[in-house]
Structures are given as C-alpha cells and as structure tokens.
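User:
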Amino acid sequence: MVTFSEAQLISWMSPLIWPFLRTLAVFTSAPVFSSKVVPVRARIALAFFAAVAAQPSLEGQPVIAISDPGAFGAV
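Assistant: Predicted structure:
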C-alpha cells in the first residue's frame, strides 16, 4: 500500500495552491470575468489552468503549509 505523509502532500500541493488562489483572485475581480455571464466554474477552471501553465516559470517557491501563519500573506 502506498502511503503519503502530510509533509509530502504539502510539498507537492503548495507550489500549485498559492498561484491558483492568486490567479483566481485576478479572474474574480477582472471586469470581464466578474460579470454574471461567466459562470463560477469557468473562472475556477481558467484559474487552475493558468496556474498549471505558469508552474514551469515559478521555480524555487517556498513550501507554505495551509495552517501556517504565513499562508495569509501568501494569498
């Protein structure tokens, strides 16, 4: 059985979560995407794909746990 520790999951997900949240904030506040015409699921999907596409250029990001006090500053 394959097991993962919490530290491993955080180190894998941290480089994707924080850029995703920042991109989602931009898409939510942008006038074109914040209208009622664009569904929320579409905004979330666009933010996710933009964060995944940006991953190769975002090297050396610090690993910040979700429960860490610095997580608020990362968002």
